[in-house]
Design a protein that fits this description.
about 50% helix; five-stranded parallel sheet; six-stranded parallel sheet; alpha/beta; 25 helices; about 625 residues
Length: about 625
């Protein structure tokens, strides 16, 4: 079973308590399903098994070094990996398209209105739109951004030109991986994975790098900028975390997935006197909105936590246990990370599983309220009414949770808020890096997985080891929730940092691990790192900066890794990717790539060894820069 050294399934006490409770009740959770899988297929683990065509499944062995079609181990493993990446890009594109359509509905006094015009003006400049007339800019920019997704793959993306560092653009042009629109790039990459189309692992790897660039700059950056425009650019503020934020005496609606639009509409509606009065009339103490995984993460970055919006429970491995507390009335599931067994768990605990995205399909789920930006206010009220009507039924089941921990963290660190903390300039950050007070910066962009250890164990250990060695950590994705719940994003965590980082934290009033958002913020952090490179007058690969995905899990994570490698970053990953049966491919990404893009894939399953290698890389870059 995936577990910690003490035999427990998670790094978090609240999760362990709920796992024990679920098992005692005979309930099946992800932790039990992981154990049931047992030993895995060796060929699949090595990436040398293919079932794309009817002649398969093919497996590469010493006696059969090629599949029936003729593809070898390197081509097979890279083709499998690239196909995974296309799923990740497609999901990011779906999210972006929904956000861009929401922008078209923005109007003063409406459910959605522009809060940060500067972000829209920046995007308008990038795609060649006039800012005036300002009142029509949201609709015009919405149409332009949707069109940019479909820009021909041979037509260079203006978004990449606007936001990527010039030296990176030059390198990508020379390699032939400067992308067009992400939707078209994804089509081309997927077509390359068809049987008998592309069996060259180098060609496939270059397609993957190109797709990573298109995803980061053509999807993630405009997606997050539009969300900033609609919901506010993140700024630091206190939040609450962990399963203890769920109080079953309230009507509770959990918002889960990756899109903040319905959650934002719900928070606004739930904060009205009328909604609260309806909840109390039903016998509850009030009405609350509970953030879960990345939708919760998007919201805690931008919305104040109070007695209505109460914070974030944790990452995707916690969602079944959040339901199992017996304290949720509606689980509103948008486009990502809703496990296929969740309806069973919801039925056991009196919770309505309501899809709010047409991507979600879970056997036994309740009738959906599929998000429509033009109807969002009415839809939020519909969800509230469903939750209030469900409250007496859920309470009558009498399956309340034990008392669980509530933690504290600070969220809302964006490029703008970091610059604000530094007095509006990167110079103070550069100065402490140059004089050695900080050794470097690490972007922790991670999921959470049970592949090799308990939930979040590797992530928390990596983060602790980095800050102990005076490396500032910017956390994104499900890994961000891991360190939030573990207490590393509270100011008190500065006590766990090395003397240099601790001094910086005390001077600026920040924690040693900064909450930088979700996996979608991969593009945003590339903009920040690019600005640091420009300020120092160097290309990105020269920086004392690393990326780490201590517990990557799914297809969005793999395309993020491709973006980081194309960007020129040392990129640590765990667990071991499914490519080990492809020796030339392994050599390409771990040894040869630094001479191609400047990036490097570092695979390490031991936290201390992984950080030691990151520190060696940082030290090498510092020495080369003469700092």
């Amino acid at each position: 079973m995936a577990a910690t050294d003490t035999g427990r399934p998670s790094r978090h006490d609240s999760v362990n308590t709920m796992v024990e409770r679920a098992r005692a009740a005979g309930e099946d959770t992800v932790f039990d399903r992981m154990e049931a899988q047992g030993k895995r297929c060796t060929f699949c683990e090595q990436g040398i098994r293919c079932s794309l065509c009817s002649q398969g499944p093919c497996r590469i062995t010493a006696k059969a070094p090629r599949g029936v079609c003729g593809i070898d181990a390197d081509g097979m493993a890279m083709r499998n990996f690239l196909l995974q990446n296309t799923m990740g890009t497609a999901t990011y594109i779906y999210h972006a398209n929904e956000v861009f359509k929401t922008l078209a509905e923005a109007q003063p006094g409406g459910t959605f209105e522009v809060k940060d015009w500067g972000k829209l003006e920046t995007l308008a400049g990038a795609v060649g739109l006039d800012v005036e007339p300002k009142d029509t800019l949201p609709k015009r920019l919405s149409a332009a951004l949707i069109a940019e997704l479909a820009r021909d793959h041979k037509d260079p993306s203006p978004l990449v030109k606007a936001f990527a560092p010039a030296p990176r653009q030059k390198a990508w042009e020379e390699l032939g991986i400067f992308p067009g629109g992400a939707l078209q790039e994804n089509t081309v990459a997927t077509a390359n994975c068809l049987t008998n189309v592309n069996g060259d692992y180098v060609s496939l790897a270059l397609k993957g790098l190109r797709l990573g660039i298109a995803t980061a700059y053509g999807v993630q950056v405009p997606l997050e900028f539009v969300q900033d425009a609609l919901f506010g650019t993140p700024a630091p503020h206190a939040i609450k975390t962990d399963l203890g934020i769920i109080d079953g005496d309230y009507v509770n609606i959990a918002v889960n997935g990756h899109e903040p639009m319905m959650g934002a509409a719900l928070i606004d509606a739930a904060r009205t006197e009328a909604a609260q009065a309806k909840a109390t009339a039903a016998g509850a103490k009030g009405l609350r909105v509970v953030g879960s995984i990345e939708t919760g993460q998007e919201l805690v970055q931008r919305f104040d936590v109070d007695d209505v919006f109460v914070g974030i429970t944790g990452n995707w491995l916690s969602e079944e246990l959040a339901v199992a507390t017996g304290g949720l009335d509606v689980f509103a599931a948008d486009m990502n990370c809703t496990v296929p067994t969740l309806a069973d768990t919801c039925h056991r605990h009196g919770t309505l599983l309501v899809p709010v995205s047409d991507l979600i399909g879970v056997p036994g789920m309740d009738e959906g309220v599929i998000f429509d930006a033009a109807k969002a206010a009415d839809q939020a009220q519909q969800l509230i009414d469903m939750a209030i009507a469900n409250y007496p039924k859920r309470k009558a089941m009498g399956n309340g949770a034990p008392e669980l921990r509530t933690g504290d963290a600070v969220a809302g660190f964006s490029t703008e808020s970091i610059l604000g903390a530094l007095g509006g300039s990167l110079d103070p950050l550069l100065d402490v890096i140059k004089n050695g007070t900080l050794k470097g910066v690490a972007g922790l962009v991670s999921c959470t997985t049970l592949r090799d250890s308990g939930q979040d164990c590797m992530t928390v250990e990596i983060a602790k080891e980095l800050i102990r060695n005076d490396v500032l950590v910017l956390a994104m994705g499900c890994g961000n929730a891991a360190v939030q719940v573990a207490g590393l994003e509270a100011p008190e965590a500065a006590e766990l940092a090395g003397p240099g980082l601790k001094a910086v934290c005390e001077l600026l009033g920040i924690p040693p691990v900064l909450s930088f958002g979700t996996c979608t913020d991969t593009g945003r952090i590339m903009v920040l790192v690019g600005a640091i490179a420009d300020a120092l007058g160097v290309d990105v690969p020269a920086l004392p900066v690393v990326a780490t995905a201590p517990e990557y899990m799914e297809q969005k994570a793999t395309i993020d890794a491709m973006a980081a490698l194309a960007f020129g970053l040392y990129t640590h990953v765990n667990p071991v990717p499914f490519v080990t049966g492809a020796p030339n491919l392994v050599k390409l990404v771990t040894q040869d790539l630094p001479g191609v893009t400047g990036g490097k894939l570092a695979v390490e399953t031991d936290a201390k060894e992984a950080v030691a290698a990151m520190l060696d890389h940082i030290a090498t870059k510092r020495q080369a820069l003469g700092i």
